[in-house]
Write a structure and sequence with these properties.
single chain, twelve-stranded mixed beta sheet, DELLA protein, disordered N terminus
Length: 579
Amino acid sequence: MGPYPCGSAAGGWEGVRSEAQCTAAPDIDGLLAGAGYRVRSSDLCQVAQRLERLESAMVYNSGGGHADYDHLASDAVHYNPSDLASWVDSMLSELTPADPGPVRHAPAPDGWVDQIYPQPQRAVAARMEEEEDSGIRLVHLLMSSAEAIQRGDAALSGSLIDEMRLLLTRVNTGFGIGKVAGYFVDALTRRLYSVSSPAASGSPAEYEILYHHFYEASPYLKFAHFTANQAILEAFDGHDRVHVIDFSLMHGLQWPALIQALALRPGGPPSLRLTGIGPPSPDGRDSLREIGVRLAELARSVRVQFAFRGVAANRLDDVRPWMLQVAPGEAVAVNSVMQLHRLLTDPDSPGPAPIDSVLSWIHGLRPKIVTVVEQEADHNKTGFLDRFTEALFYYSTMFDSLEAGRANGSAVQQQQATAVAEVYLQREIRDIVCCEGPDRAERHEPLVRWRARMGQAGFKPVHLGSNAFKQASMLLTLFSGEGYCVEEVDGCLTLGWHSRPLIAASAWRADDLEDNARPVPDNFIFSSISSTSNTNDSNNNNNNNNNIINGNGSMLRRNSNNNSRSSDSSSQQESIHGM
């Protein structure tokens, strides 16, 4: 069909109001004739009205009035469509029922909108438009409220929060901008009215539960574990005694895959030690030991010589290198998944930050590999508005990726895991928005800044090879969301959503690494950590009973005289042996 000189057929010919509005210039007749249409410009409005009737009739038939169109393609004879008026009349004669009944009629020229777009459809469209407008308004109000807080105008920020709460009643807070805005309004409210305290982020036990659900619901932590494990596996090649130091054990989710990979290593598996750092259990349970027992059982089943050691610490900077008891001759790997950012301080804070001392003693361990995975974001800015803006867009993208996975998932368990995973992210939002100074833990910084910091600490980058890239790409096939993307950036890997990087993995080594340490004696038995809280004695000579757990679960007790050192947050743990 040729071009419509007046209005738009797709738009329902809304612009047609009267014949006078469609009056064409005399030369239009010549143009129409030249294009092969036997119609005059003065007849176009009548043709438009007939087209409206034709569209209405087609809508009526497709809605169930007359669904059979076979006769249109068989015994019906239609005029040449170049004769627009005759062609439309022919189509109408075939489509329009003899007695359409009271349900639907051919529309009058002034009432075509109500006929083509019934009231329920129009209501839905209006509702969607209202939600879109409210969502845009919410973003503007969020930014304005954050700016008011930065200026110290609590009254203005409070009034804007009240307005946002009203707008949230007009949008769907179950997904999209409504959900994200709801989380940020909650965080602003807590900051403004001191609803939360530094302890509002919850207990370490709750954090571990949320962490586990976030692991299950999205590929981000799996990407971190797979990428780090591949780098560690390659760094351990050719070494018979290996020692992994995990800065955040978190149920030991990362290590079954590494244990199984080491079991399949050509020439036989090495002797593996794993030191896991985690928070003390508030209920008196030795959760680190329980994790170690499970890993020891797995190691025994695949015939990997294994020893586990738990170090309980509330903060990573409370850990001292002597607690890790790195033995001479071991190939050491240090693993940190989304933990090092907690050691940062405000960029303009005077004096060294905890990250400086921790990186210094890590370098002193002469590790073969240091794997670092961090959020690819900039939430450590001094200005509150800049930090808030970055967080708003970062977590909007993160929630989009989670929603896509939930929408494409079928299992109820997956849906529930996603819902709890969102609480994990909500806690991060609260920390970024509500807390300042030493109370703020979520100080995410981008990869470029971590590269500079690691270089200043004496580390050299290790290129994450093609194997890590392939494994990360294969991992994404397990998730139905098609927006995930893995990219290589100067030897590092990033995982993002629709070209926005969200986490980054990198690997490092000590630049002056030497392999001249003496081997570990075969009968070497690792003793447990023993430290006394709130004491300044660095050399208290204590007699300790160290519990060693063999692979069969039996307890061996041995007496030893160890030099116990002080720490404010570390506690005695057991060594667990897998074979």
